[in-house]
């Protein structure tokens, strides 16, 4: 058990993450303090959740490029609704955000499932459509902090046993995903569909339906994150989280989730997101211009994918047996 | 009669259907229909649309993207993709702006733009063909890397002050309303059309996209062909970087942002299968015209760009979904 | 040849069938795969399903396991009509299958491969991993497989993967077990273990449908037979009442005096010499020569390494050691392109994946490696391209509507003709045919054999990899038998009997199995 963990991608990634934290700590004391690490986690919470959603989709050999647009649209809807009807309870807004997110995910999933359109084409289309809809409903206007109710803005920041609610939500999602992927039939179906779609059919798994479920769950998480993002930064506008969909894919790739499907773990996705989040938070501490971040995450993606490809090189049929037994 | 060197005979027909029947079923004709429809709608919607200079202006909406789309079409037909094209533009443009400080003239700037494009293509190609990595992930990585380097160099600054002779490449006209960019677009459409549809290389590209294993077993050097395609895509991005930088007259690291998605949309709208193996350059040309006219027509009606993108996104899904939907309904 | 026939006492008092199919029909666009077929499976008995490739056996298996829905007909379980809408429905009803292709998941563990879809559940309906591993270990022990359930499947060899597939079928409380060519990838000892397993399943009262091409195997373990031909059921009955010859006649639909072309073989000078050829994991110590105008047969069990040697010769994989000489000169072959340039071409076994580009038209498939001949400076000349394609396809008597028809629309035999035409157009010195008649109809088979004879007579050197004994005996001048990645023996056709061939390939004394 322990030996197989040490050899796993997750262990290597965890090692790299710890090394990164220690490196920054050695130059700029205080980075590795519990308080700061908690802050880094909180800052990465949304990326972690989206990476988990994206992971499910990628496991089934699909990809969802519309997650960030979905997030921005639900975020805008909740913000505008809050501004218009400040009395509406935040719980209702969250429920609405998740529902809206699931619906958008279902649209992607249905197009992939029922019409068999390649996921990259579908979500490339819905990426622009969802983003455009934000402009249509908001007319390009911003919803600013002063238009939002206090309750709306307070939830993610409220502290609970030393951690902000945002962090707790992320932890709950991580725990939920661990159970979903490792212990539920649906979770194993995601892996099976991506690992060998042909065999999945023989096993009684409906490939299309499973993909649909992955898109719906990912969409729901994007919706949830839409509310969390807008309330945390207390501003909603058309370009919220623009380009974030690629950060999410990057987190998955760094986390060792194979773009070819069927291979990936919850731990990997979380660590991949944390790796990017740590870099982002370490740069200002280390006095490096934040403009370096993009190039570093690009390089991290390339290194991660090259590393993963090397460790999963295909074996042959292994026909030859030792001469003594032949 | 010898098997190895048989005599010639003629009983198996070349083709089952005539050229007219093939044409009538083609994607290109569907696109042409859409293009004509949009053109007519535009003339009805705005009296300014038919003005030659307005139409000429409209071409700038798509010429640069389309140049990349031609190379991207070949790459996608071969079963790969390059999402770093906009990153390449940013890096190439930044390199030109940086070189400007040393007093380089227009030919030097162009050379640098093209060289950076080629070099970026070589990086993508090497990562995909030498290390066997999936191109979609590699180019998401290099997309960030290339643009990231621009951000490192420029931060929130910009390079300005390109010479007039350089600006002509993006703003100049060859004759009357025919811009230099439009000429480049037509020239590359012709070249890529011939390469894809009339040469051994093009046939190899299509074969690789259909079945890379069988292609290899037929003696095609699959990796080499893919490498050339990545180089071409890099080069075309470099050319687009020259035109765009010349047209804008400045370089910011955010230049051409999200163009990769528009270029891929153009290619897919043009009937190229995202799964590889089929597609045509005339289709991509028509898709470029459709996208350009939509953008321009809605622009004349003062519809903001972001709303046009809804239309493009819906078009992308619609043109693929509707035929499949109809087939499903008929099948019942 | 004598066979011991397993007469179990259940035959005498044959009870009602567990599963009965009646009037089952299934069509696909352009093909009637099954028409009005019957099948009955009895508890504690093995029914052999016999038929040539394309007779409809695979379609039937897919209907039985819920992957296809029949267009017409009834499926009755214990006399009551049932409907299997999905694979899960069939499994829930106790129908399970070991499929021809091992349909498993490389990235999941052995235990999960066995239990995917019906994993033991614990509290809250969550998967109980500990119990799953325990039960998996129990099943693996039961079938005598020494495999750790926690191992990722990727790390197993072919034979072990097959055992996992069997364990999976047994993990369902099955009443009906379908085995679709279960011995294809197994070694002799593993096959013997499988027979014991089948016997045990019979004793447990399970009804077994056993699909196989090997008649010795069918006579060894089956109690009943059903013969399919061209999508129809032509006969069914008890094994005790029929002979091998009768079964073959029913299967083929005519008396089988399979005539192979008469050849006056006059082998010329040595064209190809292979010496000390070795690959780290697939084969070792391969050495042979090939003469002009000769047909050299390569026989062996599936997975003996024959295809691997051929693909190395063709430059697909790189051997670690060894020398290849063509016309006496050392040939360096690092890619198929270099092999083709040196005159070696390869007709692969996996036609759909490695041979034909099925979505592309016939003429483009044929001219693919010969494009330089139909083009000027890289520009294709369409008229010349069509002419070249027509020349070779017509000579091979290709049946197609037009040269621009996609290869995927042709029958297996005609697809094979396209692949062979493609290689003949390159004017090769050596043509390697890997299972050249696999999956093609009887008529096309004879045609392929005729081409081979003609090509050899015209001075081409032919290497034929085949698992069909009649084909090997009927076509080869010499035969090399491979076993577990090595050459086991080399024979002249004159000295060769089917028994010797089988015994050498399996590496055991045949008496031990079937006597």
TrEMBL record, chain A:
| UniProt GO molecular function | transmembrane transporter activity
TM ranges are 36-58, 65-85, 91-113, 120-141, 161-181, 212-230, 261-279, 291-309
- Location(s), subcellular: Cell membrane
Keywords for the protein's UniProt record, in alphabetical order: Cell membrane, Membrane, Transmembrane, Transmembrane helix
Tell whether Ribosomal protein is among the UniProt keywords: no
Source domain of life is: Bacteria
Membrane topology type: Multi-pass membrane protein
Which is a Pfam family this sequence falls into? BPD_transp_2
Q: What is this protein called?
A: Rhamnose ABC transporter membrane protein
Q: Which organism is it from?
A: Salipiger marinus
- Kindly list the organism's lineage: Bacteria, Pseudomonadati, Pseudomonadota, Alphaproteobacteria, Rhodobacterales
UniProtKB/TrEMBL annotation, chain B:
Q: Give the membrane topology, semicolon-separated if more than one.
A: Multi-pass membrane protein
Q: Where are the transmembrane segments?
A: 29-50, 70-92, 98-119, 131-153, 173-195, 228-249, 255-276, 283-300, 306-327
Which CDD domains did the record assign? TM_PBP1_transp_AraH_like
Annotated compartments? Cell membrane
Q: Where is the signal peptide?
A: none
Keyword terms of this UniProt record: Cell inner membrane, Cell membrane, Membrane, Transmembrane, Transmembrane helix, Transport
* Pfam families membership: BPD_transp_2
Q: What is its main location?
A: membrane
Recorded GO cellular component terms are: plasma membrane
A GO molecular function term, named singly, is: transmembrane transporter activity
InterPro entries in the record: ABC_transp_permease (IPR001851)
Q: How does it assemble?
A: The complex is composed of two ATP-binding proteins (LsrA), two transmembrane proteins (LsrC and LsrD) and a solute-binding protein (LsrB).
Q: Please explain the role this protein plays, according to its UniProt record.
A: Part of the ABC transporter complex LsrABCD involved in autoinducer 2 (AI-2) import. Probably responsible for the translocation of the substrate across the membrane.
Protein name (Swiss-Prot/TrEMBL)? Autoinducer 2 import system permease protein LsrD
Please tell me the species this chain comes from. Salipiger marinus
Lineage, opening ranks: Bacteria, Pseudomonadati, Pseudomonadota, Alphaproteobacteria, Rhodobacterales
TrEMBL record, chain C:
Instruction: Tell me which SUPFAM superfamilies the record gives.
Output: P-loop containing nucleoside triphosphate hydrolases
Signal peptide positions (record): none
Where can this protein be found? Cell membrane
Q: Does the keyword Translocase apply?
A: yes
Organism annotation: Salipiger marinus
Recorded GO MF terms: ATP binding; ATP hydrolysis activity
| Domain ABC transporter as annotated: residue spans | 19-255, 266-509
Q: Which InterPro entries match?
A: AAA+_ATPase, ABC_carbohydrate_import_ATPase, ABC_transporter-like_ATP-bd, ABC_transporter-like_CS, P-loop_NTPase
What keywords tag this UniProt record? ATP-binding, Cell membrane, Membrane, Nucleotide-binding, Repeat, Sugar transport, Translocase, Transport
> Which PROSITE patterns does this entry report, sorted A to Z?
ABC_TRANSPORTER_1, ABC_TRANSPORTER_2
Q: Does the keyword Glycoprotein apply?
A: no
Q: How does it sit in the membrane?
A: Peripheral membrane protein
GO CC, alphabetical:
plasma membrane
Higher taxonomy: Bacteria, Pseudomonadati, Pseudomonadota, Alphaproteobacteria, Rhodobacterales
What broad class describes the main subcellular location of this protein?
Answer: membrane
The lineage's top-level taxon is: Bacteria
This one is known as Rhamnose ABC transporter ATP-binding protein
């Amino acid at each position: 058990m322990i030996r197989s963990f040490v050899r796993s991608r997750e262990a290597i990634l965890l090692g790299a993450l710890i090394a990164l934290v220690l490196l920054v700590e050695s130059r700029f004391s205080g980075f590795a303090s519990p308080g700061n690490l908690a802050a880094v986690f909180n800052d990465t919470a949304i990326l972690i959740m989206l990476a988990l959603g994206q992971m499910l989709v990628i496991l089934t050999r699909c990809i969802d490029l519309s997650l960030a647009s979905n997030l921005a649209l639900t975020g805008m809807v909740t913000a505008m609704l809050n501004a218009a009807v400040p009395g509406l309870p935040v719980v209702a807004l969250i429920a609405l955000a998740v529902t809206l997110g699931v619906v958008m995910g279902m649209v992607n999933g249905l197009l992939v499932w029922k019409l068999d359109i390649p996921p990259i084409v579908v979500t490339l289309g819905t990426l622009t459509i969802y983003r455009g809809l934000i402009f249509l409903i908001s007319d390009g206007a911003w919803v600013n902090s002063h238009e939002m109710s206090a309750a709306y803005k307070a939830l993610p920041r409220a502290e609970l046993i030393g951690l902000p609610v945002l962090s707790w939500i992320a932890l709950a999602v991580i725990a939920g995903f661990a159970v979903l992927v490792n212990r539920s039939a649906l979770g194993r179906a995601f892996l099976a569909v991506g690992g060998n779609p042909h065999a999945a059919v023989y096993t009684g798994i409906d490939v299309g339906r499973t993909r649909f479920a992955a898109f719906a769950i990912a969409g729901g998480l994007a919706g949830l994150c839409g509310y969390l993002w807008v309330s945390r930064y207390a501003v909603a506008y058309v370009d919220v989280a623009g380009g974030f969909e690629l950060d999410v894919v990057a987190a998955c790739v760094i986390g060792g989730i194979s773009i070819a499907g069927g291979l990936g773990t919850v731990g990997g996705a979380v660590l991949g997101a944390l790796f990017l989040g740590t870099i982002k938070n370490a740069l200002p501490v280390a006095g490096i211009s934040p403009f370096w971040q993009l190039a570093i995450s690009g390089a991290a993606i390339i290194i991660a994918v090259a590393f993963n490809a090397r460790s999963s090189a295909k074996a042959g049929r292994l026909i030859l047996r030792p001469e003594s037994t032949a | 009669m010898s098997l190895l060197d048989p005599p010639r005979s003629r009983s198996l027909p070349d083709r089952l259907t005539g050229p007219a029947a093939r044409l009538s079923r083609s994607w290109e004709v569907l696109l042409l229909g859409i293009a004509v429809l949009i053109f007519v709608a535009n003339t009805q919607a705005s009296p300014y649309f038919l003005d030659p200079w307005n139409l000429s202006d409209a071409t700038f909406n798509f010429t640069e993207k389309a140049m990349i789309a031609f190379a991207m079409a070949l790459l996608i037909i071969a079963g790969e993709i390059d999402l770093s094209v906009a990153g390449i533009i940013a890096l190439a443009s930044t390199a030109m702006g940086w070189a400007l400080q040393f007093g380089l003239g227009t030919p030097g700037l162009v050379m640098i733009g093209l060289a950076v494009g080629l070099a970026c293509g070589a990086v993508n190609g090497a990562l995909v063909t030498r290390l066997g990595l999936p191109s979609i992930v590699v180019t998401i990585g290099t997309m960030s890397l290339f643009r990231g380097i621009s951000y490192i160099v420029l931060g929130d600054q910009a390079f300005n002050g390109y010479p007039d002779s350089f600006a002509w490449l993006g703003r100049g006209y060859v004759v009357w309303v025919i811009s230099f960019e439009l000429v480049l677009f037509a020239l590359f459409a012709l070249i890529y059309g011939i390469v894809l549809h009339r040469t051994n290389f093009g046939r190899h590209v299509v074969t690789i996209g259909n079945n890379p294993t069988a292609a290899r077993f037929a003696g095609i050097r699959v990796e080499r062909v893919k490498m050339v395609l990545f180089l071409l895509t890099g080069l075309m991005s470099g050319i687009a970087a020259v035109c765009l930088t010349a047209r804008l007259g400045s370089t910011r690291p955010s230049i051409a942002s999200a163009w990769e998605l528009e270029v891929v949309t153009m290619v897919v709208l043009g009937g190229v299968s995202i799964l590889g193996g089929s597609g045509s350059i005339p289709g991509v040309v028509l898709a470029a015209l459709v996208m350009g006219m939509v953008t321009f027509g809605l622009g004349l009606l003062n519809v903001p760009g972001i709303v046009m993108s809804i239309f493009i996104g819906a078009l992308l899904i619609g043109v693929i979904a509707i035929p499949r939907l109809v087939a499903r309904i008929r099948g019942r | 040849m004598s066979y011991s026939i397993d007469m179990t006492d259940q035959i005498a008092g044959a009870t009602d069938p567990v599963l009965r199919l009646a009037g089952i029909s299934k069509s696909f666009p352009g093909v009637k795969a099954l028409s009005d077929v019957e099948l009955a499976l009895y508890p504690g008995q093995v029914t052999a399903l016999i038929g040539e490739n394309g007779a409809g056996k695979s379609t039937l298996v897919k209907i039985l396991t819920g992957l296809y829905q029949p267009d017409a007909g009834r499926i009755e379980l214990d006399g009551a009509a049932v409907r299997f809408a999905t694979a899960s429905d069939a499994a829930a009803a106790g129908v399970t299958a070991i499929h021809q292709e091992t349909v498993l998941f490389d990235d999941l563990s052995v235990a999960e491969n066995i239990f995917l879809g019906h994993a033991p559940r614990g509290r809250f309906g969550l998967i109980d991993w500990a119990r799953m591993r325990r039960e998996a270990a129990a099943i693996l022990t039961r079938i005598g497989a020494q495999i750790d359930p926690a191992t990722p499947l990727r790390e197993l060899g072919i034979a072990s993967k097959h055992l996992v597939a069997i364990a999976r079928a047994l993990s369902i409380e099955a009443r009906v077990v379908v085995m679709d060519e279960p011995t294809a990838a197994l070694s002799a000892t593993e096959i013997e273990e499988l027979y014991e397993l089948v016997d045990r399943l019979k004793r447990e009262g399970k009804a077994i449908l056993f699909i196989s091409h090997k008649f010795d195997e069918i006579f060894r373990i089956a109690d009943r037979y059903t013969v399919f031909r061209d999508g129809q059921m032509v006969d069914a009955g008890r094994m005790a009442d029929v002979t091998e010859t009768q079964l073959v006649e029913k299967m083929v639909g005519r008396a089988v005096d399979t005539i192979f072309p008469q050849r006056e073989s006059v082998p010329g000078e040595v064209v190809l010499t292979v010496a000390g050829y070795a690959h780290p994991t697939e084969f070792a110590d391969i050495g042979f020569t090939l003469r002009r105008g000769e047909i050299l047969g390569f026989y062996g069990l599936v997975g003996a390494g024959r295809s691997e040697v051929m693909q190395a010769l063709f430059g697909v994989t790189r051997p670690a050691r060894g020398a290849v000489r063509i016309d006496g000169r050392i040939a360096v072959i690092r890619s198929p392109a270099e092999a083709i340039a040196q005159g070696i071409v390869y007709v692969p076994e996996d036609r759909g994946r490695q041979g034909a580009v099925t979505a592309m038209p016939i003429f483009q498939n044929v001219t693919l490696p010969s494009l330089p001949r139909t083009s000027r400076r890289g520009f294709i000349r369409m008229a010349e391209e069509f002419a070249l394609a027509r020349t070779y396809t017509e000579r091979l008597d290709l049946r197609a509507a037009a040269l621009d028809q996609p290869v995927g629309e042709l029958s297996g035999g005609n697809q094979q003709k396209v692949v062979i035409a493609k290689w003949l157009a390159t004017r090769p010195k050596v043509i390697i045919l890997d299972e050249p008649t696999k999956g093609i109809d009887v008529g096309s088979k004879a045609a392929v054999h005729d081409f081979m004879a003609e090509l050899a007579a015209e001075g081409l050197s032919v290497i034929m990899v085949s698992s069909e004994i009649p084909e090997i005996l009927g076509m080869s001048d010499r035969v090399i038998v491979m076993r577990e990645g090595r050459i086991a023996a080399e024979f002249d056709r004159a000295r060769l009997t089917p028994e010797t061939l089988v015994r050498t390939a399996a590496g055991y004394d045949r008496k031990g199995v079937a006597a």
